UniProtKB/TrEMBL annotation, chain A:
It comes from Peribacillus deserti. This is Ger(X)C family spore germination protein. Pfam families: Spore_GerAC, Spore_GerAC_N. It is a lipid-anchor. One of its GO terms (biological process) is spore germination. NCBIfam families: spore_ger_x_C. InterPro entries: GerAC_N, Spore_GerAC-like, Spore_GerAC-like_C, Spore_GerAC_C_sf.
Length: 392, 527
């Protein structure tokens, strides 16, 4: 009995020593950081970190449900430091609570930092620190700073939730802006065969007359990163090329011309791409096959949709649209010598020996590549109606 | 006769002999029955201390030969009418000549039995046995000129009628439950199993109370080695009194220090019957409606009789629900505290903000808050059991309104803690057997403290300790986690889900191996 007791006791003591890190923290002592803005102060040569925290509204006397009813408030505070961690620690002088990074929803990188300073190292802390996740979406504050973006307070939502919602929504509805998460950026930065793209967000004047705020945030384009620096932007429909090639299209829509001045809208519901890369006399040959499905979701001109020729024409036009998006995207990436589509990685997988010869000058090799794109689009429905309603 | 019985009587005797306060001047050292009726009456009276409820009726039948008869019985323990009509009346009218001659003959009880119309008539001449029989409510019949005492069984004790079970209720199923009377209880079972295989053995436990303890099993179906072990364990009990079957339970269970019960206690006859048919034994104790059943496995505490009385889809669903409830009752407060203090990252952001909002301005650390609320609930619950019926509403109003609503509004505790505590409390009541719920009730506090100390890691450690303990438990040699570990595929038909009855044609583990099939040529329905 005694020996058994000693055995169990020793088990418990060892178990407690093996516990690793754990920290007891009451909810009311913690400030939950929702968004982090990272900017570069050129004059001071320091990082400026902006923290956007959730501020739980205190349990009111009228309703005992706390902040359950309305959107949570936000609190903004800033700190500077030579490293991000230093800045985070500096913030304790300005904020009464322990910052808790486990619920960070977004990281916003200032334009200056992305353009002039390298992004290569700033993500280290996200992977190294146990308190923060590595699956946080990253955006670049296009033409502005992370601080400015986080300072825009929307009327109905927490600012960070608002940005996050826009990213998710846009990726789902349009496929132009994809959320790139920290770990993906790190993977692409460290890979020789691909470069990251990071979505952009800009501050625009709010045109909503009912809103008390004069500013609003708007997603704009995908930033092309080359060797850790922002070198250009893929804008508009060009940025769809990334979604098409990475099979990230959930839904998007294409407007195709149906007569002299009107358009018809096609909703793309499914898209699969297959890419083959191989070296041919020193130039990469990239063959892209895209298979897409879609439905007609708006017709602004009266065409006989039952007619096979009309259908075929629509399909053809949509295919051409998709093809042009992809071609334009790749052309821009080529001109900027940044393989944002990861063709290098594909070559690495498909022809390792060819990749070995070119890996160290891949971006230059890529810019000379020969690209052939084949798009096969099928209309599989016309939604709730077949023919448009008759009009005089 | 068990050995402790003898030692008990010895004690009484030695006390009498050595007692200096007893002024035993007239009849010193008379400890045995004599041929004098008055001496015998006095002896019995002495043994009992002449209590007011001792009724002695002496009739002088023939003054000339000094032939007299006396009836001694305990008032309130025996059937007065039966004594009047079946004992006293025939004795007063009897042909005493013939009887007197045969009193000393070996078949005197038979002769007397022709006169006296009672169930059972015995002859004895040991004063201790006579006193014991009288104490049980029988009537002692004494004659002059003989040392033999005739015992007529006239026991009748006021008892409660059958009523609905109070702690193990079902919607569909039998509504009768055991009472305090042992014979009523055994009859409730016997009426349900009209089979000669049903065996009852009587044992006597309690050096002072001499409580009747009866052991019931189905001969051949119950494993003999388990029964032998049970008899040995009951015989080894050394205690002065048995007031409830829990007294027996504490002595005979395998692990005396475990928080988990290894014997089922039930007040439902149908539960006893079902378990007897699975080869288990039942222990009936006089004076309590709770019957012990063993060997018991952990899973059995989650099996309600109703699982078998309703559609098996529903039965299975409810049983799984019960396992979930047990998990909730055991873990939720600990998990709540662990997540709220150590693992904020595990809470969805929106919920976290809501919870953080509730926590604003609450003065105590969350573990203290949870502990206080758990204790408050335990107090309420104990008060609910103990309080007089008339003030029942007061407690529920005070408990629900003041402690729940007002404490949150006043900012003493956060609303989420109240939700967690009440969820735990409700979940605890889904257990069909009360004693396994108690284990969850106590272990919950352990997990709560572990969770607040080192978070989820502590909960995991606590779980390992509890599981290791559960797996080490045995009930009469049967592993406590029986069909799960050691894993038996065929026995899974009645563990987490209940398969339809035609598929349940084999008996579970404790049944003796020769009787594995429930019906002859059984198992044919099984696929």
């Amino acid at each position: 009995m005694k020996r058994k007791f000693v055995f169990i006791l020793s088990f418990f003591i060892t178990a407690c020593l093996l516990a690793g890190c754990s920290n007891y923290r009451e909810l009311r002592d913690a400030a939950f950081i929702a968004g982090i803005g990272i900017d570069w102060l050129k004059e001071k040569q320091r990082y400026q970190i902006t923290f956007q925290a959730f501020s739980p509204s205190p349990a009111g006397s009228s309703s005992s449900s706390g902040s359950g009813s309305g959107p949570p408030g936000s609190a903004l505070f800033m700190a500077e430091g030579r490293t991000i961690s230093e800045a985070a620690r500096q913030a304790s002088k300005k904020f009464s609570r322990m910052p808790d990074y486990s619920h960070v929803r977004i990281v916003i990188i200032g334009d200056d930092l992305a353009k002039s300073e390298s992004l290569n190292f700033i993500f280290d802390v996200f992977e190294r620190d146990a308190n923060i996740r590595a699956n946080i979406p990253v955006l670049i504050a296009r033409g502005t700073s992370g601080k400015e973006v986080l300072s825009v307070i929307p009327a109905t939502e927490h600012p960070v939730e608002s940005i996050n919602g826009k990213v998710k929504n846009s990726a789902k509805m349009q496929g132009e802006n994809q959320a790139t998460e920290v770990y993906q950026i790190i993977n692409q930065l460290s890979s020789k065969g691909s470069e990251p793209t990071i979505g952009g967000i800009s501050v625009v004047a709010s045109k909503d007359p009912s809103s008390p705020n004069k500013k609003a945030t708007k997603l704009s384009g995908m930033g092309i990163i080359k060797e850790g620096k922002l070198v250009g932007w893929l804008d508009g429909t060009k940025s769809k090329s990334i979604s098409f090639l990475n099979n990230q299209i959930i839904q998007t829509n294409e407007s195709i011309r149906c007569d002299s001045h009107q358009y018809t809208s096609v909703r793309i519901t499914d898209s699969r791409s297959k890419i083959k890369v191989r070296m041919n006399s020193g130039r990469p040959e990239i063959v892209i096959h895209v298979n897409a499905l879609g439905v007609l979701d708006e017709m602004l001109c009266n065409r006989k949709i039952m007619d096979y020729d009309v259908l075929h024409e629509y399909e053809q036009k949509t295919s051409n649209n998709i093809l042009s998006h992809i071609r334009d995207g790749i052309n821009q990436a080529k001109s900027q010598k940044s393989d944002i589509f990861g063709f290098g990685d594909i070559l690495h997988r498909q022809h390792p020996e060819q990749w070995k010869k070119n890996e160290n000058r891949w971006n230059d090799v890529f810019s000379k590549s020969k690209v052939s794109i084949h798009v096969n689009f099928n209309l599989h429905g016309t939604s709730m109606r077949i023919e448009p309603y008759p009009y005089k | 006769m068990p050995s402790f019985f003898k030692t008990g009587t010895k004690k009484i005797q030695s006390k009498k002999e050595s007692s200096p306060s007893q002024p035993s001047t007239i009849k010193p050292n008379i400890t045995n029955l004599t041929y004098n009726i008055d001496d015998n009456i006095d002896l019995i009276k002495d043994c009992l201390g002449s209590p007011p409820d001792l009724n002695v009726r002496k009739i002088i039948i023939d003054a000339a030969t000094d032939f007299s008869v006396a009836m001694i019985r305990m008032d309130g323990m025996s059937d007065k009418k039966e004594v009047d009509f079946s004992v006293i009346e025939p004795l007063s009218k009897m042909n005493f000549e013939q009887l007197r001659e045969q009193l000393e003959s070996p078949n005197s009880a038979e002769v007397l039995g022709r006169l006296i119309a009672v169930n059972k008539l015995e002859k004895m001449n040991d004063v201790d046995k006579v006193v014991n029989s009288i104490l049980q409510g029988n009537t002692g019949i004494l004659f002059n000129h003989t040392s033999q005492v005739f015992i007529a069984s006239t026991r009748l004790i006021d008892k409660r009628g059958l009523s609905e079970p109070s702690s193990q209720t079902v919607i569909r199923g039998p509504k009768d439950s055991f009472t305090e009377d042992l014979r009523t209880n055994t009859s409730l079972v016997r009426a349900r199993i009209t089979n000669p295989k049903l065996r009852i053995e009587t044992l006597n436990v309690g050096e002072i109370t001499h409580t009747n303890v009866e052991l019931m099993y189905l001969n051949g179906i119950a494993d003999d080695s388990i029964l032998q072990e049970l008899r040995n364990r009951i015989k080894k009990i050394k205690i002065d009194a048995i007031l409830e079957s829990s007294y027996i339970e504490e002595f005979i269970q395998d692990s005396k220090n475990s928080i988990f019960p290894t014997l089922i206690s039930t007040e439902r006859p149908d539960v006893v019957v079902a378990n007897l048919l699975e080869g288990r034994f039942a222990i009936f104790v006089y004076g309590t409606p709770y019957v012990l059943i063993g060997p018991a496995t952990f899973i059995q505490f989650f099996q309600s009789p109703e699982d078998y009385y309703q559609n098996y889809y529903m039965g299975s669903f409810i049983r799984i629900l019960r396992f979930v409830s047990f998990f909730i009752a055991l873990y939720i407060p600990g998990l709540y505290v662990a997540i709220m203090t150590h693992h904020h990252a595990l809470i969805p952001t929106t919920l976290l903000i809501t919870l953080a909002g509730q926590r604003e301005g609450v003065p105590f650390p969350i573990v203290v808050e949870a502990l206080i609320m758990e204790l408050v609930f335990e107090v309420l619950r104990e008060a609910g059991v103990r309080m007089p019926r008339a003030v029942g509403q007061t407690v529920s109003i005070v408990g629900a309104l003041i402690l729940g609503q007002a404490a949150v509004q006043a900012g003493f505790v956060s609303a989420s803690t109240v939700i967690v505590v009440s969820l735990t409390a409700i979940a605890n009541f889904t257990m069909p057997f009360f004693n396994v719920a108690i284990a969850a009730r106590i272990l919950r506090f352990l997990l709560l403290l572990l969770g607040s100390y080192i978070g989820m890691y502590g909960i995991m450690l606590g779980t390992f300790v509890i599981l290791a303990h559960l797996c080490s438990l045995r009930s009469f040699g049967l592993p406590y986690f029986d069909p799960i570990t050691p894993f038996k595929l065929l026995a899974q038909k009645d563990v987490f889900i209940r398969l339809p009855l035609p598929k349940q044609m084999t008996r579970p583990e404790p049944a003796s191996p020769e009787e594995k099939n429930r019906v002859q040529g059984g198992g044919r329905n099984e696929t």
